[in-house]
């Protein structure tokens, strides 16, 4: 009897010694979505993921087709008072100004250098494009990446005083992790510049550069006299990854229709529409509604940026789940209490 | 003594019961590159992978930067007598002909329908583009994918009688597997149509659709009256992923300079050049030289397709490794003895 007892203990110890590793592989001891309040939104997300990833479920989606796409501005990180990439461009204009004395008398540069963003943007799309092309073209991709990295490391937000890559939404980072833990591939699909994002998104969201789809300049391969090579960004638009451009960008880059799409503005409407009107598997459309004036910003239908109008009108028709930021999220930013 | 002995046996059994799983995670019991003959080429590949993936090595490359790019035509699958995608386009012309009676009198269609490929291509690039646009545009991406899948499943090669996706190079498939087992991400970077390849490459090479870079048409998002949505391929070129286009395509799609690049023609020259002239990590350039007239085809400098001229001239200068197909490969196709 005592012998059996000893055996049992030793067997138990041995099993204990090797079981944690195996368990860790099957299901990590992590609580997902911990910054989400319990409620209909969190439940809808978890129900979708559970039913589409449970073997034998009628709604099962094979791993190869688990494609999830996320807008970035106002969806994974904040976008107020204006798109952060525009703030980067403005800072670049200031940095470049000493080499361009002519800008003192030339719009939109003059207004920008005088700190009047509103006047600078009075020139509409043309002025905006000029600012972006001046700061995002005419240099090698390595030089551009270095300038973005420097800005991300040093610049801070006018309201929070935080670095911009700290102003990411903690619940969305957890949603990305939750999906990846269930073998979804997570992609960014943003109107923002693809190579602006690629510099910092892997660290912020765990999304590698090649899973980022965005707007882009044309580029050219160049060989220098010393034999060194580079890809140079031209001051010419290549692709605008916004609105009806998002399904096209996804098609060209990913080559598959997503089963899960997440956005926050009418720029994401067509991406969600394309995703959730597909035949076959169940699909999930997710809209982030900025309802939290205290911890973040409250805006939707009349906003000068990140306008959400058509999306709110049609969410019910398409069966999209709407996140109410104020009520659905325990915290907004990682630095929140 | 007997008790200890029993314990030892039980302990052994328990350890045995849980150890195989753990070992399988560390290092699968697979012999890589088994279709490669031992020799300088195989050794160069293995030396590079070993030194760049061994922790503590001066040449160590972090996992996030292990990007490997592969040309497709003549590099992962065969390309003689002409690019297989052109054979697909010709078959499509024949399928579409009953709806286009005017083709009987219109080049290049007339010549194609009469089986005279040479005459059809006498119109040069313009004729080729016309054939490709007629068969690769003006339909939804789903319709196009279905036509490619049908062709891959049914069409056979005029010389071997095999399906085209059987005419892949077994040693290259093993090289892809070997790199992935060492945490390299493997991408296709081809002058061929990106959505032509995406239909069948995952099954053939284990490369998912979103890791395929290629030439493309422009596309448009469309909503039908019944609310269904599609991305439609237009009869307009978007991007040619060949020659100096390859570094640009890699930059736009992957966003990182590869550390390993593999090709077989002068269309791959700039991709290898951009890869192996980079600073920092060690890099590897690999050229496949078609030297095997018996098991495959022998061609290089004067070939009408897959011409390799500049690459052979400059391989030594850039330190590229050249595969001699006849001597380096034990077998060419998976169906070879």
Automatic annotation (TrEMBL), chains A, B:
GO molecular function terms noted in the UniProt entry? hydrolase activity
Origin species, per record, is: Roseivirga pacifica
Q: Which UniProt keywords apply?
A: Hydrolase
Q: What is this protein called?
A: Haloacid dehalogenase-like hydrolase
Is Metal-binding there in the keyword field? no
Q: Per its UniProt record, what SUPFAM superfamilies does this chain match?
A: HAD-like
């Amino acid at each position: 009897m005592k012998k059996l007892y000893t055996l049992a203990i030793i067997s138990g110890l041995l099993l204990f010694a090797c079981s944690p590793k195996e368990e860790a592989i099957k299901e990590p001891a992590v609580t997902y979505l911990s910054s989400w309040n319990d409620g209909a939104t969190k439940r809808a997300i978890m129900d979708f993921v559970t039913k589409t990833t449970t073997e034998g479920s009628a709604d099962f989606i094979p791993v190869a087709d688990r494609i999830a796409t996320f807008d970035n501005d106002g969806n994974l990180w904040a976008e107020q008072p204006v798109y952060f990439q525009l703030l980067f461009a403005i800072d670049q204009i200031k940095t470049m100004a000493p080499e361009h004395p002519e800008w003192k008398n030339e719009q939109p540069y003059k207004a920008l250098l005088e700190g009047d963003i509103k006047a600078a943007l009075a020139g509409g799309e043309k002025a905006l494009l000029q600012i972006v092309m001046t700061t995002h073209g005419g240099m090698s991709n390595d030089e551009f990446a270095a300038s973005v990295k420097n800005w991300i490391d040093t610049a801070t937000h006018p309201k929070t005083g935080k670095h911009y890559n700290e102003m990411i939404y903690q619940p969305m980072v957890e949603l990305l992790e939750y999906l990846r833990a269930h073998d979804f591939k997570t992609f960014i699909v943003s109107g923002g510049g693809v190579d602006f994002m690629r510099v910092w998104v892997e660290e912020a969201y765990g999304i590698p550069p090649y899973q980022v789809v965005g707007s882009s300049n044309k580029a050219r391969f160049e060989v220098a006299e010393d034999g060194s090579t580079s890809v140079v960004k031209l001051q010419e638009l290549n692709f605008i990854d916004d609105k009806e451009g998002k399904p096209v960008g996804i098609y060209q880059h990913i080559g598959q229709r997503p089963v899960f799409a997440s956005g926050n503005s009418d720029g994401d409407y067509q991406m969600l529409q394309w995703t959730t009107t597909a035949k076959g598997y169940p699909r999930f459309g997710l809209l982030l509604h900025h309802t939290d004036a205290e911890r973040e910003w409250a805006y939707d239908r009349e906003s000068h940026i990140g306008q959400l109008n058509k999306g709110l009108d049609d969410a019910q028709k398409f069966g999209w789940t709407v996140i109410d930021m104020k009520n659905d999220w325990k915290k907004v930013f990682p630095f929140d209490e």
